[in-house]
Amino acid sequence: MCKHTFLFLVVFQFSLFVQAQQPKSEFSIVENNKSTCILTDEKDFKVVQIAAGIFAHDVFQISGRKVVTAAVKNQKSDITIIAGTIGKNSTIDAMIANKKLDVSEFKGQWERFSIQVVQNPMKGLKKALVVVGSDRRGTAYGILELSRMMGISPWEWWADVSPEKKSEIVISVENKVSKSPSVKYRGVFLNDEDWGLQRWAALNFEPETGDIGPKTYAKVFELLLRLRANTIWPAMHSSTKPFYSYPQNKVVADDYAIVIGTSHAEPMLSNINTEWNHKTMGEYRYDTNSTVIKNLFSKRVKETAKFENIYTTGMRGEHDSPMIVGEDDTDQQVKLLENIITDQRAILKKEIKKEPNTIPQAFVPYKEVLDYYQKGLQLPEDITLVWTDDNYGYMRQLSNPKEQTRSGGAGVYYHTSYWGRPHDYLWLNSTNPVLMWEEMSKAYEFQSRDLWILNCGDIKPHEYNIELFLDMAWNMDAFEKSTSVKNHMNAWAAREFGNENATAVTDILFENNRLAFIRRPEFMAWSQVEPVTKSGVTELNQFHYGDEVSTRINDYQAIENTVEKLYADIPAFRKDAFYQLVYYPVIAASKINQKWLYSFKNDFDAKQNKRSANDDGEQAIKAYERIVKETQHYNETVSKGKWNHIMTMEPRFLPAFSKPSFVVVHPKEKASLGLALEGYEMEVNHEIVNCFADVLPVFNRYTDNHYFIDVYLKGEESISWKAVPKADWIRISEAQGTLSASSGNQKKRLWVSIDWEKVPQGENKKEAPLGHDFQLIPPSYKVNNAIDFVTKDGTITIGVSVYNPKFEALENYSGFIEDKGFVSINAENFTRNQSGKEAKWETFEGLGYSGKVIAALPRSAGPETDLKTIQQNSPVVEYDFYSFNFGEADVRIQAVPTHADYNGRGVRCAIAIDNAEPVIVNFQTFGRSDQWMQNVLKNASVQSAKQIINKAGKHTLKIWMVDSGVMLDQILIDLGGWKNSYAFPRETFKK
Q1: Does pTM top 0.85 for this prediction?
Q2: Which residue in 141, 154, 177 sits closest to 45, CA to CA?
Q3: From the candidate CATH numbers 3.30.230.10, 3.30.379.10, 3.90.550.10, 3.20.20.80, the one assigned to the domain spanning 25-177
């Protein structure tokens, strides 16, 4: 037997197949310069021929060998694949009749397939690889599964994931039958296409149409087949002509076996945005103009009747707005909507000549339509209820137990791209994939399994989240745990960029997603839309807690450095793919953050008259220019200009994307040294006696703090400085330097820390003194010293105070500890986790400000509001902490801002310190309130409850589940010392 060269095989199997019936066997696709022949039947569905052609293309891309695609009666080969649909392929039907194939397990079922090696399948052929589909899409998925097994990425064309060249192709085959898809209809909504997809199609890919037409849709449909999707909501903005205005579009969709549906604003496959003509059709109001509207519906149903469709029922207004009615009365609106649906079903029956309950229909309770539904709208139970998120990734409602029994079932419409208030995110993919997993897992658990649609905007740069979404829809069983997402991404990265790069790529993207969860790149201007506002004032604190602005700059710079280094090592044939899938998204996110973050620093430093403010402004401009450069490279250079016009760095030309302006500082005085300390908004003024801004915050032995001192140039020319600690236990990151206007080195951040082994220790006490103010520590517990900053002009002394007592209670203590009047906790770092009668708290990885949250599971567990029962039966997490103060504390809990699943289930937990009676905390928001807007901009819902700490010393915070599904992120116990910050300070933990 010849020696085979095996392809790199990382494929997303994830238990896609039922138990193998026979051992695995090798099958050569290309061997010894022999090409494959894939045999189909000319009577089979068009999509089977299309899939065979795609497979042949894939083999050629790998090996350079052409694959013969032929009808079964015309050709055979030593290497033969037979592919077809049960009842549509004569050879396969003969094998079934001769008992060479057993299809009893999946015959007549939805989108299933079998792949197996069959001996003597037909006269004159010793062996063949046989792909059998239960229906037309099942066969197509089976054929394209072979491409996956060869290592071909679904993004082979859409992200230029060129396969590695091989002279021989061998796959490992087990006789297997695919499982039924987890979700019946699975697909995407092409939306907000104005700035990318439509321009690219019109100006680059399909200029003969000048639009997104059949040529473009054929490529989209190929991608959907490769991703095992079956449904699309076509692009519908006014920049694009309606899908059905190009007659060939629906034919191409049917050729590719793609089901056409439409969005919540497009009833009965009608694109109101561009098909409604006020001059000829009048006002788009059903209460006054129903005849004309019904005529439009009837026309569309008639021309689509012979194709696979999902008809959206109900009605909204034009341009994604509420429906217009004569009276602003909810009861009248509900009644009118019910009448509309009744009329629509009558049209379906008349034009398709089938009973409405046999025709796929969807009702999307989006925005105000959900309110109508909640107010009692009666919906025929065979219509699929398509629940929506709140446009920012949080499902607004899901099926209650009664709704879960509806014959029409339920589905989900989910966003990873959005145009609207409080702010768009149309540029980058900034939806956390673990959040998407969590919300879709919840929807699936509550029986939303009939239709999943992802609003993915322009497709690019949403590639990974599209694949994750559709892989979950195909086989949700493979995604039981939050860690499944990281495993999936690692496999995805290995397939695209090799095993050697998979971990690094995954780590980069997970950190990029964590930072975007804290605040999406498009939200960094602190502006809003509808109406559009100018850039605002950042909530990030620049002088407390290590400087949140600088910390975020550094975090982005770290992954930027890593991705730059990794890019250099990616093989040449995958560089274009890496650029599209990893490099551009990460660099662009980093630079729009740095643009705004340096702008905030410029404004802050300019107010202190620092020359370094000019450097900050220049850094902001450089970040903006890098975005321009990379976007131009994406459009004009990547894949030799294939994607020209696909990427726009400023969709809707919002303030968030604008070129930054900055303040220029022109000091006139001679050069001198300026100092600014962590904890103070103003600079040190050494000319003022007893300036209170000349002492660093107290260093606490138990939390091992470090604080910054900024040394900066004031005035012209240059100045040299030395930092001289006046005690050997004071450590400083740099001891001397020179600041110079000409060199651009005008500011330096120094970090001060303590060598605790050298600090004199306070008295040995059992407990801390009761209720002291942490900044006014009794002398026996506080050690004072200083750092002298020396220049030719004199000396500036900065006070250093350390808290270094010796408490017996803390000698072997491991837990959270008060620092400067607060205790900060990451929710996943509990001291104890006690399961309840029916539920428990579990950790989700990859979500939240720290990268982990805890969730109350299972979601099926019912709510509990009786306080005694909560304490007895509900799961509880406990956090041991030590306080130096006592009195009233404000316990602030930060949760992921999910919504109530359905009536009766909320977003609540209960808290108590020590043995106090629990207090219920509620994170629910309603409608599109101001609080909801702030929550989705921050991906955080913060609620608080007052608690009494009766003495200094050891305590325990307890958090019980009230409603399952609640996800907790961070906790802050504020005893009066916390200063406002965007995120809670880093954990105050003593190991």
Answers
A1: yes
A2: 141
A3: 3.30.379.10
